[in-house]
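Quick one, tokens below. Sequence please?
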């Protein structure tokens, strides 16, 4: 039976457990299949690329989870949705080193997938028999998508991965709450830049649809950055505590 997240009215279905972590599919992900089928002009190719994207995002999330587990932090679930993936961690590692490594692990996995996909594109045509065009198209899509996914996540749009990297560096020189405030401020400036870029593309590129997902990403950065700042302040006032944290490629699917 579909479940409903506390943060969304869109139903979610539990797919399976991987390494003891439940993996959920938010039904908004179906829109990605329709979007890719429309953009690529081929329903079969659209579904194949959507599945490749889902697998890539899932591995990205487990990159975060595996890195966090080295610091004793467990994950409660992973959710795949229209606007990305979400690894729900019990908390973010408190040491700057732990947060840094947890944050960069996801983009690192994305870049590794991209490298393997680029290598497959080179290897198949020249060293083996030619592969079907569908496979080659999916490898090309996976290579480009993971390259962009890794790079985009390293933007300092706290609480995206790059923003967490930025906070972990600041936390070496100031309190966690103050570092979070600076990261949130830089993240909001980044969000405004992302929104302006999306609107520029909408008004200047013929046939480019309205950037709905871009707007969702901006709203996520704006809302979740403030939420994490308030958490950091409460922790500072109360001398610690365990609060649910979300880490993901953008934006959070929760």
């Amino acid at each position: 039976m579909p479940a409903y997240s506390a943060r969304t009215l869109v139903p979610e279905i539990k797919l399976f457990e991987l390494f003891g972590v439940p993996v959920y599919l938010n039904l908004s992900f179906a829109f990605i299949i329709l979007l890719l089928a429309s953009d690529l002009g081929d329903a079969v190719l659209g579904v194949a690329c959507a599945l490749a994207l889902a697998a890539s995002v899932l591995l990205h999330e487990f990159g975060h989870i595996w890195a966090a587990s080295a610091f004793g932090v467990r994950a409660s679930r992973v959710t795949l949705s229209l606007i990305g993936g979400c690894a729900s961690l019990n908390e973010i590692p408190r040491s700057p080193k732990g947060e840094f490594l947890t944050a960069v692990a996801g983009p690192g996995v994305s870049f590794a997938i991209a490298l393997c996909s680029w290598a497959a594109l080179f290897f198949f045509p020249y060293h083996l028999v030619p592969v079907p065009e569908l496979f080659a198209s999916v490898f090309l899509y996976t290579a480009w998508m993971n390259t962009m996914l890794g790079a985009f996540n390293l933007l300092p749009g706290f609480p995206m991965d790059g923003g967490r990297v930025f906070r972990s560096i600041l936390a070496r020189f100031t309190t966690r709450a103050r570092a979070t405030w600076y990261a949130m401020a830089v993240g909001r400036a980044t969000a405004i830049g992302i929104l302006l870029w999306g609107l520029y593309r909408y008004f200047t590129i013929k046939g480019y649809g309205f950037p709905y997902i871009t707007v969702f990403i901006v709203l996520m950065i704006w809302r979740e950055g403030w939420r994490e700042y308030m958490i950091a302040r409460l922790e500072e006032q109360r001398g610690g505590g365990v609060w649910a944290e979300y880490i993901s490629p953008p934006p959070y699917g929760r």
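The longest strand covers residues 11-18. The radius of gyration is 19 Å.
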